[in-house]
Amino acid sequence: MDAGLYDWMKALHVISVIAWMAGLLYLPRLFVYHCDAEVGSVQSETFKVMERRLLKAIMNPAMIASWVFGLVVLYGGGQWTEPWMHAKLTLVVLMTIAHMMMGSWRRAFAEDRNQRSALFFRIANEVPTVLMIAVVIFVIVKPGF
Fold it and tell me: Which of 2, 72, 79, 138 has the fewest CB atoms within 10 Å, i.e. is most exposed?
């Protein structure tokens, strides 16, 4: 892959990851606030719209772009065999699972059937942060195993 194209792919990967992370950090916070809203209230209905738009218009496209550009960069950089890359990819799979779980929780709120507490979502809000910290360490430090 041409070096200029490779740099563009890396840039687009980082941009899409930033957008994805913003959503992963914000959506559970919306859930925390949504827990306090009375079912059927204007506030609850507003949260439903915000949550749907965040997931559908920002998070889903950003996740897909992160994966696509990340795989292009991985292919172009030839880092398939690096142990730190295996660890990073494992964490990104976990991040994707967290994303899917948030989609499930959003559907529960949309259908007024959420049974989880604000505390649950406060704790869930920390999962993407911990995963992100670990990913950054693996990418920058590239620790040996």
Answer: 2
Name 134's Cβ contacts closer than 8 Å, sequence gap at least 6: 87, 91
Give the range of the structural domain holding residue 112, as residue numbers without chain letter: 3-141
Look at the chain and report how many structural domains it folds into: 1
HEC letters along the chain? CCHHHHHHHHHHHHHHHHHHHHHHHHHHHHHHHHHCCCCCCHHHHHHHHHHHHHHHHHHHHHHHHHHHHHHHHHHHHCCCCCHHHHHHHHHHHHHHHHHHHHHHHHHHHHCCCCCCCHHHHHHHCHHHHHHHHHHHHHHHHCCCC
